[in-house]
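Give me the fold.
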Amino acid sequence: MDGIGNRLLVVYDGHCCLCNGWVRWLLRHDRRDRLRFVASVSPAVAQLFERHADLLEPNGTPDTVLVFRNPLQINEQLWLRFAGELVSLRELPPPWPAVALVLGWIPDLLSDPAYKLIARWRYHIWGRLESCPLPTVEERARFL
């Protein structure tokens, strides 16, 4: 996957208003240019989804944020749900790595069910977009 380098790749639901808000927030705070983004409906992630078909819903997209380091490489790393959000925060400038450290103390027994509950109701609460928003000219280099 070209243009990623040693950055994290954040795969998100481009139709979800909550997910798009999270991506916009990350874009504003990623002053060190450590993150790249791609909507889960983009053809650019087809190879990733072939490799990780077990993470897909019947509609062919994941129901969670996926965060990759070195996607499609031998040393690929993948984080799901709350762990993906935390690893994204760790890439941002201070104070966000410290926030991720504190939030990391929340046990998976609590964080994963809470994440799944929010994911299940995200369209009902925050809404669903008819199409994925296009990045601005300045942001385009940060999207696949």
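Residues 90 and 98 are 8 Å apart (CA to CA).
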